[in-house]
Amino acid sequence: MTFQPRLARVDYRDVFCADLQWAPRDAEAFLRRFRASSPPWAHSLSRLRDLLVRPFRLHKSERASGETEPMPLEVNGRLGPFVVLGVTPHEVLVGDDDRHLRFRFLCSLDDSGTSVSLTTEVEYRNLFGRLYFAVVKPFHCLIVKRTLANAALRSPAVSQQASRR
User: Fold this and answer.
1) pTM of the predicted model, to two decimals?
2) What pLDDT digit, counting tens, does each position of 38-69 carry?
3) How many CB atoms lie within 10 A of CB 66?
4) pLDDT score at 161
């Protein structure tokens, strides 16, 4: 099942796919692993982005420390800075609607659970959204590719050990 409709108009779309070397129990488990697998420099870029866009009153890219995420995910709940829009065993759809753009991020596991695809869709709401995403897009692609590669290669046990450092 693919969640529809995602956006009324799609101005940008990308899809990144990977074969998994571990077997997540569902799309939610993979998406949580994906979020935990981003390279450290990606967090630094997110903090820089938040500082630079503060005057424009855009949503922050990170949650405040100490906030917890529901287990399991619930529709209209949050996963980090994203609103959960749909959850099935094979798919999780998250997104956000801000002043400058709307976006959706879909995590889809194949039926066997051995490969995953990550789809981003963006709708520009105004000229600022178009300009903002022109700057952000190369970083978005680099971060998603690197994080997907990290998440696909790690078993949950290995990732948990690495996160304790």
Assistant:
1) 0.81
2) 888 876 776 766 666 666 666 666 654 444 55
3) 5
4) 31
Task: With cut-offs at 50, 70 and 90, classify the pLDDT of residue 158.
Answer: very low
118: nearest Cα among 24, 14, 22, 28: 14
Structure-block tokens of residue 99: 């002043």
Q: What is the DSSP letter of 58?
A: P
Residue 109 in tokens: 């596991």
Q: Give the count of beta carbons closer than 10 Å to the beta carbon of residue 18.
A: 18
| CA dist., res. 154 & res. 24, Å (int) | 11
Phi, psi of 20 (to 5 degrees): -95, 140
The alpha helices in the chain, defined as continuous H runs, are 27-36, 40-53, 127-153, 156-163
- Triad 75, 78, 80: Cα angle to 5°: 150
